[in-house]
TrEMBL record:
Protein name: Biopolymer transporter ExbD
Compartment(s): Cell membrane
Record flagged with keyword Acyltransferase: no
Key words, A-Z: Cell membrane, Membrane, Protein transport, Transmembrane, Transmembrane helix, Transport
Naturally occurring in which organism (per UniProt): Pseudomonas capeferrum
Superkingdom classification of source: Bacteria
Pfam families to which the protein is assigned, alphabetical: ExbD
Keyword S-adenosyl-L-methionine among UniProt keywords: no
Coiled coil: none
Length: 144
């Protein structure tokens, strides 16, 4: 049996133009439907305390000041553009809505400069807040 071996092979070309069009449409779809979120909360590692008192569970509205390790302030999860006394006082006043009887909690990172915490306490004192709370985490058992 004799087979023909000198048959010419056909060159097969794959047209990629339609594939590229589909990829671009998918890329456009993903770009348009993607939502970008901006993280506005500060990451804070609270210092430990051996004696802790839990806040009341039925506590309503309150003002919370968060201070990062770099001394950046956040009032009720709203990041402040500047870390000075005037900006902090204005943000606290706006968050309280003029009600200085609200409880005020300061959550400062364990590595926050002492001056940043004193500035927050000074702003609260000048505005007339009397219920001031420092936020800590409970120390683990067996840790001095």
């Amino acid at each position: 049996m004799k087979f023909r071996r000198n048959r010419q092979r056909e060159n097969v070309d794959i047209n990629l133009a339609s594939l590229i069009d589909v990829v671009f449409v998918l890329l456009l779809f993903f770009v348009v439907t993607t939502t970008f979120t901006r993280e506005t909360q500060l990451r804070v590692e609270l210092p430990e305390a051996a004696s802790a008192e839990q806040p009341p569970a039925d506590e309503g509205k309150r003002v919370e000041i968060t201070i990062s390790a770099e001394g950046v302030y956040s009032v009720n999860n709203n990041l402040l553009p500047k870390s000075d006394l005037a900006t902090l006082s204005e943000a606290i006043e706006q968050a309280a809505g003029g009600d200085h009887s609200l409880p005020l909690a300061i959550s400062a990172d364990g590595k926050t400069p002492h001056q940043a915490v004193v500035t927050a306490m000074d702003a609260a004192g000048k505005l007339g807040f009397s219920q001031l709370r420092m936020t800590t985490v409970e120390a683990a058992q067996g840790t001095p």
